[in-house]
Design a protein that fits this description.
Mean pLDDT is 84; it is low at 1-54. Helix 15 runs antiparallel to helix 16 and helix 25 (414-426) runs parallel beside helix 27. With 719 residues, the protein is mostly helical. The longest helix is centred in the C-terminal third of the chain and has 24 residues, at 695-718.
């Protein structure tokens, strides 16, 4: 009789175990079995290796007459590699009278899915169909999950749609839920609603879990209203909203600023007995704070406290940040005292709040308070204080604080040095800025885009455009990508030094680099064209702005209106003004009105100017001193001094204080008309009202007085 090896005996004892599970827990029970833990010999480990790496199929064939589907399932549950498992599966199928059953296919397909062998799975599914094995939903669910883990959400969806038609297996809500989950995990939220509506069209009732997934997908694609509508629709299918559904909607509505709706949902959630988690409450509180409804947010926190919720550091941080944004930093400080264990982020919020209001002493006091309770300041703490010192102009103190932070073990970063460089550039201290850059480089830190922009802008303003261009080249060579601010600074600098062709070349290069020009870019170039008198070229850029969807602002319009007025084309200027108003671009400081009134007056059309002034008032806009100065100057030039004086009197009625231009214009007119006494009376009247005569005033009076004396002399001489 053929002697069966010890290994095969152990294997046979395993195959005879009556219990079986397709899940790993079953394997764990097997692994601990005494059949594979032979305490009588030390060679059991070697036999175990022989069993697994790889499976010794020839020995198995020699030791077993036949293998049953049940035994094959037990073997496939072992951690065998895929080739060995497939070989074992194929060998078992060659046995006379043997037929694979569903459980065998399930075990093997599960293993193949984990290994990503999806082509083999497709082959096995066709084999199952040919063998007439009845498909069960559980098999498709496990394949869909493997598709999801492998990053193939589309294949999971395709399999779901093929279940009924190809494999004659009716999907239930379970299959749909798995696919919806896979689509969300695979970043395909746009497909989720389509799968959901397919589910409904087939008469499959969704579960609360289904609704939660679909609502989450709709919120991800900004279809929040559709998600909100599903909240009402789910009741028709017998689903009662749970906490997850409410939390999904509250989070989405809070992100887009629909705070009132989040509050209603929170109330509905509590009414339905759903307990919100702290993240949901924080969403509502954060939404209120973003809308600066800080006191409502604070009341909600107090209410939640009474209901047993414990606010976390994020809750307090959001509230404190809201108070700081409203300028109520002291209230934020009171709130900090309520926090059981304040952290450095909360202290930083408070410090930043005080720095924003220029209260540096209070900011320093908060930092010392944090140190006293063992909360060590970090780089953000120091950067906030350094920024505050720089904004106040205390650059020496900022440098001292940088030295202090290094002594305390906190190394300055790129932002620290960028703050310092920015302020030095703004004050025109470029030499000092270069020294900071050298110090920064010595520490192994490289300038970021913001740092380069600070230096390039300062160089361009100082008309050192070539140095700025050299820095631009250095920036690109070091892998630091220039942005729109970089290009705008360079284009401005080139236009300033009359290198307009280079500016246009840089503009074209910017577009090729993929940097989108903004209104500032176009305004710089348009004004350069207008300065050169090339209105048509400027208008081409305006058309380019429209084409690229770049909005025109009041600076664009005012530049064009002024150019048309200078050339005497008032009608075109008026047309642009009406276009500006129709597009909702509000002119700042009445600049547009004043340009047009001045244009009318320069053309001698004072009546047109007066009509436009009435139109201006009709639109609800108040004229300012510049408006009246343009009008008074135009009237005086037209010889309508008395009319000009009437408008001068209106200034007092409308509460507008006349300036030196107003007085000088009227004094000059009086003198030209030979009304020196009236000129002196107006001067005295102005001085009594606080007007201080300037050089122009005295020049007008002296010149006209001399001219009058000369006329009197020649008159006497002729007599």
């Amino acid at each position: 009789m053929l002697k069966i090896p010890k290994f095969a005996k152990n294997l046979q004892s395993f195959l005879e175990i009556p219990t079986f599970s397709v899940f790993p827990a079953g394997f764990n029970r097997f692994y601990n079995d005494t059949a594979f833990n032979d305490k009588n010999g030390s060679d059991s480990g070697t036999e175990w290796e022989r069993l697994l790496k790889p499976f010794d199929l020839p020995e198995l064939r020699a030791s077993l007459v036949r293998i049953t589907p049940y035994q094959l399932c037990k073997l496939l549950a072992l951690p065998l590699d895929v080739p060995t498992s497939m070989e074992l599966f194929q060998w078992a199928g060659t046995q006379k009278g043997y037929c694979h059953v569903f459980d065998v296919y399930y075990m093997l397909i599960d293993k193949l899915g984990a290994a990503g062998e999806f082509k083999t799975i497709d082959y096995l599914l066709m084999q199952m169909k040919q063998e007439g094995i009845v498909f069960r939903e559980s098999l498709f669910i496990v394949i869909m999950k493997h598709y999801g883990r492998a990053g193939f959400p589309g294949k999971a969806t395709r399999l779901l749609l093929d279940m009924r038609g190809v494999y004659s297996c009716e999907p239930t809500f379970r299959s749909y839920n798995v696919v919806l989950d896979v689509l969300l995990a695979g970043n395909c939220p746009k497909v989720v609603p389509n799968v959901f509506y397919d589910m409904l069209s087939k008469g499959i009732s969704p579960t609360i879990y289904t609704y939660g997934l679909v609502m989450k997908a709709l919120c991800l694609v900004n279809e929040v209203d559709s998600a909100y509508a599903l909240l009402r629709d789910m009741m028709k299918h017998g689903c009662v909203p749970n906490a997850v559904v409410y939390q999904t909607l509250i989070h989405a509505l809070s992100k887009i600023g629909r705070v009132d709706e989040t509050l209603k949902l929170l109330e509905a959630m509590l009414f339905m007995g759903c307990i919100p988690d702290m993240d949901t409450l924080n969403d509502v509180i954060h939404g209120l704070c973003k809308m600066l409804r800080i006191h409502e947010a604070a009341k909600l926190v107090d209410r939640m406290n009474l209901q047993g919720f414990t606010p976390n550091s994020f809750t307090y941080g959001v509230l404190m940040n809201g108070f700081c944004r409203m300028g109520k930093v002291d209230e934020a400080r009171v709130l900090l005292n309520r926090v059981p264990e304040p952290n450095v982020l909360l202290f930083n919020t408070l410090i930043n709040g005080y720095v924003s209001r220029g209260q540096l002493d209070e900011a320093k006091a908060v930092m010392h308070e944090s140190i006293s309770i063992g909360c060590v300041p970090d780089i953000f703490t120091y950067n906030s204080l350094i920024l505050g010192l720089c904004k106040k102009g205390y650059l020496v103190s900022a440098r001292e604080l940088i030295d202090e932070m290094q002594i305390k073990g906190c190394e300055p970063n790129v932002i620290t040095y960028t703050i310092l460089i920015d302020q030095l550039c703004k004050k025109g201290q470029l030499e000092e800025a270069w020294n900071v850059l050298d110090e920064m480089t010595a520490k192994g830190l490289a300038l970021n885009t913001v740092g380069y922009n600070c230096l390039i802008s300062a160089l361009c303003k100082g008309e050192k455009v070539q140095d700025a261009l050299n820095m631009f080249g250095d920036m690109s060579s070091k892998g630091c990508k220039p942005d729109i601010f970089t290009f705008n600074s360079l284009i401005y600098g080139l236009c300033k030094v009359d290198k307009f062709e280079k500016a246009l070349g840089l503009y074209q290069g910017m577009l090729l680099e993929g940097v989108i020009a903004n209104t500032v870019t176009y305004n710089t170039l348009i004004h350069a064209f207008l300065k050169r008198g090339e209105i048509q070229e400027a208008l081409k850029l305006v058309h380019d702005m429209f084409f690229r969807g770049c909005p025109l602002d009041d600076i664009t319009y005012n530049g064009l209106i002024k150019a048309f007025c200078r050339t005497g084309n008032i009608e075109q200027g008026l047309s642009l003004f009406e276009q500006m108003m129709s597009k909702g671009v509000n002119p700042s400081n009445n600049t547009s009105f004043n340009i047009l009134i001045n244009g009318f007056c320069r053309m001698g059309n004072v009546q047109g100017a007066l009509q436009f002034l009435r139109n201006m008032k009709y639109r609800g806009l108040k004229p300012d001193i510049v408006t009246y100065n343009s009008l008074i100057n135009g009237l005086c030039k037209m010889g309508c001094g008395q009319e000009a004086l009437k408008h001068f009197d209106k200034l007092h009625v409308e509460g507008i204080r006349p300036d030196s231009i107003t007085y000088n214009t009227l004094i000059s007119w009086y003198c030209k008309e030979g009304m020196f006494d009236d000129a002196h009376l107006l001067l005295n009247r102005g001085v009594d009202s606080g007007f201080i005569p300037n050089d122009v005033t005295w020049y007008i009076l002296a010149r006209n007085f001399t001219k009058e004396r000369d006329q009197e002399f020649w008159t006497l001489f002729e007599e």
